[in-house]
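Kindly go through one protein, given below as sequence and tokens. The question is how this chain folds according to its tokens.

***
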Amino acid sequence: MATPSRIAVYSGTFDPFTLGHADVVRRAAGLFDELIIGVAAAHHKKTWFSLDARIAQVRAETHGMGRVRVLPFDGLIMDFCAAQQAVAVVRGIRNLTDFDYEAQMAAMNRKLRPQVETVFLLPDAPLQCISSTLVREISKLGGDVSQMVSLSVATALQQAQKKG
């Protein structure tokens, strides 16, 4: 009898996809048989990039990472996990503020779908200060984001600013 695959979901808006996100993806991909990166439609947020652009960005940044798929999702993460037959949700934790928020979300998600575990991963220490929000703000103000995102993402941020 075949062992069932251990599938995990790492979700977010990824607006933009940072080096911290990439680090969490690398770590999580080594722990599970398959990692699905769920790019949220995020109707409640004003994103810089469209859903299609964010999906393309994440696919480009994770190209060549084995056992990683990128899919869009809309709605509850636990419904997406059920549809993907995931056994775990991966969340990146940068600091205590993240932990407080994510612990609440994990408890609520456990009520919705108790069979899905939440796994918290810390990005590498130099990447822990990076957030998509801060990257967008620094980019908007003309700052250097080259230590926070890949060159292609930095270029996309500059292009998005010129359009906006």
Q: What stands out?
A: The CA atoms of residues 106 and 135 lie 26 Å apart. Strands lie at 7-12, 34-40, 68-73, 88-92, 117-121. Helices lie at 19-29, 51-62, 77-84, 96-112, 132-140, 151-163. The first helix runs from residue 19 to 29.
